[in-house]
Amino acid sequence: MGLSISMGSAALSFADTWAVLTGNGTPLQQTLILELRLPRTLSAFATGGLLAVAGALMQVLLRNPLADPYILGLSGGAAVGALLAMLAGLAGALVSGSAFAGALLATMLVFGLAHGTGSWTPSRLLLTGVVVAAGWGAIITLILAMSPARQLPGMLYWLMGDLSHAGNPAPALALLVLVCALVLPLGRSLNVLARGPLQAAALGVTVRPLEWLIYVLASVLTAAAVSMAGSIGFVGLVVPHMLRLVLGNDQRLILPACALAGGTLLVLADTLARVVIAPEQLPVGVITALLGVPTFLYLLYRSR
Predict the structure, then answer these.
(1) By the 8 A CB rule, do 173 and 228 touch?
(2) Is there a contact between 63 and 249 (Cβ–Cβ < 8 Å)?
(3) Least crowded by CB within 10 Å, which of 7, 26, 47, 191?
(4) Rounded to the nearest 5 degrees, what angle is found at the Cα of 238, between the Cα atoms of 234 and 243?
């Protein structure tokens, strides 16, 4: 985070950064760090942590290492909400609010369709999410095709992940801390659930309420992250899997490690997005893919 605050189109030394954080520094340096870089860095950390924890929870719920926060169509619903708000001429918090509402609508839609007249299973939930995500993708394409040319750049940047308009990071950070505090006491139950519902029930775990709790928490985390920074891929898939290769499969270690590693990954990715072609900026989602894919493949190769 210190590196992220110091680097950018106008580079600052660590001494200058420390001076600003301790109440000194020039007015220009204070504006640059306290009003521009620090909120963006904290937003990147919160978003990465939210996505990584949501990914870890989804992989436990679906018992599938390839599950991630976007596989159930949540990002598609959020993207439709945000793009409709942009098309209506809204901006700022209204776009984020529309994205959050779209993600929650997608959550209820997938859960309702997967549940049907009986109970849902991981495979049924997964298939429903994939189909609903395809439907959201078609609606996104339709919106982009009908949008005026002047609005397309902002829409495309949002779809690729953009932290330049992230806003106040405090609610997302508070949500990340709250959810970690809530799920850590459930670590043993999550470890058992990852081995299958029958074994978990035999060992005294109340399976259905725990599955509902995981689904709701993962959905809220994803909705909060997407509404803040747009669609950023690979964090929720790569980070939990990388940590599992290194730390094992104990959720009491994996979940807090995901919060830290996911936040760190996105902070580094956003720093690169700001400095690679400075003063121009890249979408942070491009950087997460370029960093995440080779790192993931290398760790997977080493673990064979």
Answers:
(1) no
(2) no
(3) 26
(4) 155
pLDDT tens-digit readout, 12-55: 777 777 777 777 777 777 777 777 788 889 999 999 999 999 98
| Range 186-218 burial, b when 16+ CB lie within 10 A, else e | bbebbbbbbeebeebeeeebebeebbebbbebb
* Gap between the Cα atoms of 157 and 159, Å rounded: 5
230: left (phi over 0), alpha (psi -120 to 50) or beta: left
Question: What does 268-300 look like in DSSP terms, one character per residue?
Answer: HHHHHHHHTTTTS---HHHHHHHHHHHHHHHHH
Q: How does pLDDT run across 123-154, given as a tens digit for each residue?
A: 788 888 889 989 999 999 999 998 888 888 87
Whether omega for the bond prior to residue 279 falls within 30 degrees of 0, making it cis, is yes
Q: Is residue 282 left, alpha or beta, with left meaning phi > 0 and alpha meaning psi from -120 to 50? A: beta
For residues 196 and 191, what is the distance between their CA atoms, to the nearest angstrom? 10
Going from the N-terminus, what domains does the chain have, and what CATH number goes with each?
A: 1-303 (1.10.3470.10)
Q: What is the pTM of this model?
A: 0.86
The phi and psi torsions of 65 (rounded to 5 degrees) equal -70, -10
Instruction: Give residue 112's Cα distance to chain centre.
Output: 23
CA dist 72 and 90 (Å) reads: 27
